[in-house]
Design goal:
Blueprint: H1 3-39, H2 48-55, H3 57-80, E1 87-89, E2 92-94, H4 98-118
Antiparallel strand pairs: 1-2
Helix pairs in contact: 1-3, 2-3, 3-4
Length: 125
């Protein structure tokens, strides 16, 4: 592999690691806020955000976790795969940056549909 290709590969790995770490920090902050709000409600009295999370946990936390999980799957596959992610379905071919995007959308939709199918809505109505 040429020096330019090696440099691009390292840059891609560092960028992916940066996004994963940044997402983990943002998610950690989000959950820390929720835990502090739940354990010490006097710190955040009448928080609209906490009320929304309590009323719609699947919509507020579930969608965000699904998006982050789908990204993690695509990022791990993209880093560890030796070849770029490509799809060929029904004569339709996806190459380049569109491969990971399509894979992310498919993973995200699978997680959201799975959550919707397993969510017990009888307790909330």
């Amino acid at each position: 592999m040429s020096e330019s290709g090696d440099r691009n590969s390292r840059l891609k790995q560092y960028a992916t690691l940066g996004v994963v770490v940044g997402t983990a920090l943002w998610t950690g902050f989000f959950f820390l806020f929720l835990v502090c709000s739940a354990l010490f409600p006097e710190l955040v009295p009448d928080s609209w955000f906490l009320q929304m999370v309590l009323a719609h946990p699947a919509g507020t936390m579930g969608i965000a976790i699904s998006a982050i999980s789908a990204f993690s799957v695509v990022a791990v596959l993209d880093v560890f795969a030796r070849d770029p992610i490509e799809f060929r379905v029904w004569g339709f071919e996806v190459k380049g940056a569109a491969g990971p995007v399509i894979l992310w959308v498919l993973c995200f939709l699978a997680l959201v549909v799975g959550t919707a199918m397993l969510w017990d809505t009888s307790a909330t109505s």
